[in-house]
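Researcher: Quick test of sequence recovery. Tokens follow.
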């Protein structure tokens, strides 16, 4: 059985980090789960899922936003710069609808160990 997204949250990786109910997990998890469901049927190797890089971008309202990297959440951007990144993320996060070619093209940009 394969799962992705919020229903697969709270599963720990090898280092004990819990998956989170977030877009950054859900989207690449879906790609890995889909890959693995097909690979299982075809009898070819499965891929592991690793959020890489692990980041957090939290909107702070009028104070801007904070962007961190790594599980120890090193602050990379804050204030106005963080807010601009948050706006960019919100802009690109929505998947295209009813456009199989574009959906597959965008699937290739996910960094989760699954190529293409
Ligand atoms: C208000 C809010 C703000 C959030 N903000 C952020 C954020 O800033 N950053 C971030 O990373 N994450 C955020 N999240 C979390 C993020 O939205 C979820 O982690 C992510 O959407 C989970 O994806 P998913 O595919 O697992 O589930 P969903 O996106 O919930 O997709 C599940 C889909 O299944 C459908 N469905 C349910 N039951 C059935 C059924 N029986 N038959 C057919 N279809 C069904 C639903 O209608 C839905 O379309 C936010 C969530 C909320 C609620």
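Model:
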């Amino acid at each position: 059985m394969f799962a992705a997204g919020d229903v697969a949250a709270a599963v720990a990786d090898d280092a004990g980090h819990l998956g989170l109910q977030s877009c950054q997990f859900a989207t690449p998890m879906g790609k890995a789960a889909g890959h693995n469901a097909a690979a299982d049927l075809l009898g070819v190797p499965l891929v592991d899922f690793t959020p890489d890089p692990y980041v957090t971008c939290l909107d702070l309202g009028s104070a801007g936003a904070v962007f961190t990297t790594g599980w120890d959440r090193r602050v990379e951007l804050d204030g106005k710069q963080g807010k601009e990144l948050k706006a960019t993320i919100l802009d690109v996060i929505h998947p295209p609808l009813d456009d199989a070619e574009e959906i597959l093209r965008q699937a290739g940009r996910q960094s989760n160990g699954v190529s293409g």
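The chain has two domains: 1-51, 53-95.
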